[in-house]
């Protein structure tokens, strides 16, 4: 393992690469990354880095976003099939058909979506800024896609009428109120932090709703000593690193995203060595998608 980590460090230097990892990635991957974060932080970093190669330890839509923002760089996803089932629940054709039915209105698209859908969107959002992005728009009605749970959460925090897409994250959407109530009964003093990809009835039970990095920041600075975590369980590693004196309970052992666990250290080394797994968004899609991503990050 140490040999492999050393090899990755050397290859990273040789390739002038930066390694970005999502907060759900396995511990050994987070340990070799230059930056771990939520989708918004990773997008911003991808737009700012001076590296020649961005190696993304996450899922396909994240690498696509990096390619949209940094077309001059080589963007690598060490496992090509690391995808996101929610992103696969929308296509440009279906979005166009829905807009034809609803009439013209701004489309706010969660970054967990294909680049070609971003290209048809007014602005992108992440779990960290969805409410702010929607409230910033000069319109009374908005279509949010593809996450119906994020859209319903946003609808509770805006005056605007929100039309939502019937997409969802299979990992967050399956969390039930019974599981949450059981965890709360087992740990009555713990604060329940939930991700907005959870169902509305689960979010009703949350003390706070936030993005993955929002949870890490909050847990580190809060007075409370224990937390029930309502998101993918990979986040327990950075939480425990950021707040070693605190206790974190996963709300359910089933909160595991298989796509976020696909990349191994061997894959990272291979990808850097051979520049394999390149993700490149074609210019005809990238240029319109860039407008939507830029509007989100205020670039
Ligand atoms: P954030 O880290 O942006 O909260 O996103 C969660 C997620 O599901 C990414 O796939
Ligand atoms: Fe997609 Fe859900 Fe996995 Fe995030 S946790 S990558 S939204 S399936």
Q: Can you offer a commentary on this structure?
A:
The structure is a single chain. The longest helix is centred in the last third of the chain and has 15 residues, at 283-297. The model has no long low-confidence stretch (mean pLDDT 97). The chain is 43% helix and 16% strand. The strands form 3 sheets. A 4-stranded parallel sheet has the order 2-1-3-4, with helices on both faces. Strand 1, helix 2 (27-32) and strand 2 form a beta-alpha-beta unit. The protein is globular. Helix 4 (60-69) packs across helix 15 (283-297). The protein has helices at residues 2-15, 27-32, 39-48, 60-69, 92-102, 115-118, 130-136, 148-155, 170-173, 177-186, 200-203, 212-221, 236-242, 265-274, 283-297; strands at 17-22, 35-37, 53-57, 74-76, 107-110, 123-125, 141-145, 161-164, 191-194, 208-209, 226-230, 247-250. It contains 15 helices and 12 strands. The chain has 299 residues and is α/β, with parallel strands linked by helices. The protein has 3 domains: 2-83 and 260-280, Rossmann fold (3-Layer(aba) Sandwich); 87-167, NadA-like (Rossmann fold), CATH 3.40.50; 175-253, Rossmann fold, CATH 3.40.50. The site of 1,3-dihydroxyacetonephosphate has 13 residues, from loops.
């Amino acid at each position: 393992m140490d040999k492999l980590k050393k090899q990755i460090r050397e290859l990273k230097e040789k390739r002038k690469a930066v390694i970005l990892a999502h907060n759900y990635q396995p511990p050994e991957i987070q340990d070799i990354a230059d930056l771990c974060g939520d989708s918004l932080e990773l997008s911003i970093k991808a737009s700012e880095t001076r590296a020649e190669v961005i190696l993304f330890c996450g899922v396909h839509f994240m690498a696509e976003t990096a390619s949209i923002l940094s077309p001059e760089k080589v963007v690598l996803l060490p496992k090509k099939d690391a995808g996101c089932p929610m992103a696969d629940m929308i296509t440009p054709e279906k979005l166009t058909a829905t807009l034809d039915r609803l009439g013209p209105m701004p489309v706010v698209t969660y970054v967990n979506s294909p680049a070609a859908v971003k290209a048809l969107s007014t602005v992108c959002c992440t779990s960290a800024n969805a409410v702010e992005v929607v409230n910033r728009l000069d319109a009374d009605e908005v279509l949010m896609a593809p996450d119906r749970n994020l859209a319903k959460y946003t609808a509770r925090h805006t005056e605007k009428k929100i039309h939502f897409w019937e997409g969802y994250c299979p990992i967050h959407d399956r969390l039930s109120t019974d599981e949450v109530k059981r965890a709360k009964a087992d740990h009555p003093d713990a604060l329940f932090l939930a991700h907005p990809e959870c169902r509305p009835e689960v979010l009703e039970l949350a003390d706070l709703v936030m993005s993955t990095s929002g949870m890490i920041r909050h847990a580190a600075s809060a007075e409370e000593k224990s937390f029930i975590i309502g998101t993918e369980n990979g986040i327990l590693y950075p939480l425990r690193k950021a707040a070693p004196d605190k206790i974190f309970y996963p709300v359910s052992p089933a909160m595991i995203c298989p796509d976020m666990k696909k990349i191994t250290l061997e894959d990272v080394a291979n990808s850097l060595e051979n520049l394999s797994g390149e993700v490149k968004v074609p210019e005809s899609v990238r240029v319109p998608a860039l407008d939507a991503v830029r509007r989100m990050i205020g670039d």
